[in-house]
Amino acid sequence: MARAKILLFNILLSLLQTANAQNQSLYNYQDLSHLYYQAQKDSLKKAWVCPDAFKERDTQKKLREFWDQRTDNITAAIINDDYVHDQDVYNYVAGIVRQIAAANPQLITFNDLVLLDRSPSVNAYTVGGHVLAVNLGLIVFSRTREELALAIAHEMSHDILRHFENGMQERAAWLTSDEYKNSLKDVLNSRYDRLTKLHHILENYTFSRSRHQRYHESEADSLAVILLKKSNIAFDARYFLHLDSADDDYLQRLQQPLRTYFTACQLPYEDGWTTRRSHGLSTRNYNFSDSTTLEDSVKTHPDCVERYQQVRRWTLANQPSTPIPTAIREKANKMLIWNLYTSGALTPCLYRILLEKDRGIKDPWYDFMISNIFYGLYYADRELNRFNAIGIIPKEYISRDYYALQTLLEQIPRESLRQSCETFGKEAFWASLTGPERNLKDLLNVMTLNTDEINQKQLAKAAHEFTADNAGSMYCEFADNLQKK
Amino acid sequence: MKTPTNRLFCPLLLILFTTAVRAQTKVFKEVGEDIATEIKAITQDNALVGYLAFTRLEKTDVDSFNYRVTVMDENLNDIGTVNFRSRNLQLQAVSFEQDVLCLGYVESPMAGVLTGKEARQAYRHSNMESQLLIQFISLSGKIINKFTSPVNLSTSAVTGTGSSWTYHMASYLKHDIQIKNIPGSGFAAFYGDETKRELLLLDAGGKLIRRRKIVADVPSYLLETSGSNIYLLTKMHINPLEGGFRLYTYTTTDSVKELVTDLKDKQGNWFKVLSFDNDPSTGKTFIAGCIINPDRQRDFITAHDLAKNPYLGLFSMTLGATQADMKTTYTYWANASIPGITEDGLFTSTENEFFARYATAFRDFSGMTVFVASALVQKRLLGAAKYKFADAAFVTQDSKGQLKLDNHIPCDESSYFGPAGQLDQLDHKDFYKVVNQDTKTNFIIVDDATNIYIYNFNSKKLMRTISHKDGRTIVRVFPAKEGHILVSEFNGKEKQTRFSIEAL
Lengths: 485, 504
Hints:
The complex is a heterodimer of chains A (485) and B (504). Chain A has 485 residues and is mainly α. In chain A, 60% of the residues lie in helices and 3% in strands. A four-stranded mixed sheet of chain A has the order 1-2-4-3. In chain A, strand 3 and strand 4 (131-135) form a beta hairpin. In chain A, helix 4 packs across helix 8. The termini of chain A are far apart. In chain B, strands 24-25-26-27-28 form a five-stranded antiparallel sheet. In chain B, strands 1-2-3-4 form a four-stranded antiparallel sheet, covered by helices on one side. In chain B, a hairpin with a 4-residue loop joins strand 2 (47-59) and strand 3. The chains are: A mainly alpha (485), B mainly beta (504). At the A-B interface, helix 4, strand 3, helix 7, helix 8 and helix 9 of A face helix 1, helix 2, helix 3, strand 2 and strand 3 of B.
């Protein structure tokens, strides 16, 4: 009965959040990690003191090197705005972390630093030292709170079991061992097969490590199940099977033909633009036997199916699951789309928006983003960078619709791109957008329609003015990038 | 792309591995110094269909190396790799037909430029035989066949660079390997060494169909194919220096027949060849160029030379398997009273009169031959002539020989120079064509000293002007897949090069 009440409450909560979703604003400029985590970044540097683990000077020195490297990597990622602190999404994720921590006080005696990584990749990770990062891609991909909690618990388990720290120590010991040094000397002393020998050393090392790693993964899976159980968070081994489709985002088909989406947005469209005219190798039936992918034995993670088999016995039947609140998913997805846009990945950005349209989302923010994409593509074209903005992916990794979309973006004439920008400028949806969003359109106009030739100084000035007029807006990041050029 | 399993929760390993790699910098550096990669375009029917990276990985014994061929599509995406072991190789030619890559190498311990020590080691320890190696690779990554034939390499001494007095020894094939695909059939290959020259006909499976000795021993050869016809354009070292072209025609269907054509007009005036290419509309091979004035045949070096009528006119020649199939169109400015062109070939219809320094020619989709030239503007001041290079000019010749100045576009202007100014040094324009078969459009890229100009011949519009240098960024443009250019931007500040394949 109590469980049913919780379920009902969650459903009501998620419905309430759906209603609010369209009106919620996203994060502020100050929430980008280079600003928000400034203090944490500095304290991490102080807090992460390398332990005295080895008597041998060389080994200890090597360990310190790795330790410092870890600090440098995470602080560089913070400075690079790889993370963002959106209060709602953060609260949701941190809530899961807190729930697990509170239910497992014997194992978790510390507070995790929870970071929201802006990457679209379906992933979560820890770098040890109680730093836990959850990618926006994972939040958008996960169907339920429990599924997301499994990924989080898995990473918390790595942290509890000190896998990262132990890994650094093992590596320091190996890299300063006589065996390793001698094998490197062998490479340098040999006249022949030097690359092969070096490859073997690394392969053996990787193989040995990955066996450990796979053991670590199984260990983390097992502990994660325990953590979840104690936290009263339902565990279902089938989540691993769902994670197996994590790479399928761009293999998903669209529900409508491309023409439908384009004409709905008043965008110019011709079927011919979606057909590849090239006679290049991309259109041929190639099937190279790929020797570059990892053999299963050297993968760090067992296959999801194998993981499913290993933990399925712990699945409890008929456990309730809580859908990720629409508002949280929506915000995470918008942040992810904006991040794809600012990093110049326009095709995946547009494809994700079309997938959202398939879900019946009417939020004008997505129209605003389609407009930004076409402005961006026109600008990239003028900058002789359309090819990189599209980021052509070989046909075997994407759906037929994605292929058609990237072909269209490649072949749509420059004049039609300009026409798209002009059309978007007059659309009615601008009226329902915020001031900074409308001002961004003005900045994009300066970049594209208002100038015959791109003048970097003029752009920097317009970007500076945008930042001054829209202080605190998340869109200032875009203006920042322009000023840095 | 990563597989789902290794993507999931993987940065942990990535960070570990990165740091492990850094710890071995010295070893990587030394091993890396042995690795060398070169990129070649893969072409079919003269269109770029992909790229190939050929990498020498490491020495495996006294004679051999491990090699890797990475095949990329026309968008620079990797589509597969092939690893193999071989003696020292120099990759010279790549072609593609019926889903088979055909690669032409020189295989020899001496091929390339070796230091004295390397050359001595090779002499002491290696199998010194040199051979031509033609390798056939399928799109499933299998080496399906190979063809070899012994060759004798030429050698010469090369001095070291900079302050180094080290002598290097260069060993090379006298005439590089050329490979062209024959649609629906296979490949034609030409090569020549000190003692022989051969034309090979191979099917797409790598089987030798025919080999033919080429008797003519001349300084240069150019191979072209069209349908079942194979053309070998040779250049003799004679007077006039710009003439001396002889064309050999063969067919895949007749093993005996050889048609030899000297490139001269009916009066015996030699042709200067500007273009030896295939018509984008018919696919037939054509040759186009200038008709050399026998009275001025030695004078083509300076501005003064160009102003004194070194050429009598222009020609274009559509090739075929028989003499009857060869159609040549001539236009002489001396006797044609062409509007806007004087008897000396001076263009007078423009604001600044100019002589055309013809650089190349192409065929448009209506069969018109278009001659592309740098405009040499002549100005007279108190009787003395001075010159400058300015516009790029496009001169058309129709099938009846009607010649006209189609258009001229402003490009980078040089300063004025005197009549003795050497044109080779003063004319910085390089021209090349880009064809869009789909929209039947011809583009000309004018790569000038300061800017790159992209001109749409059909709409007579200058599409883009790209500066070679923008702050600390240096921009260059190269041919790419049909209708596109490959733009390389080297950022001097970040020491990075960005490549982009842009539609025209």
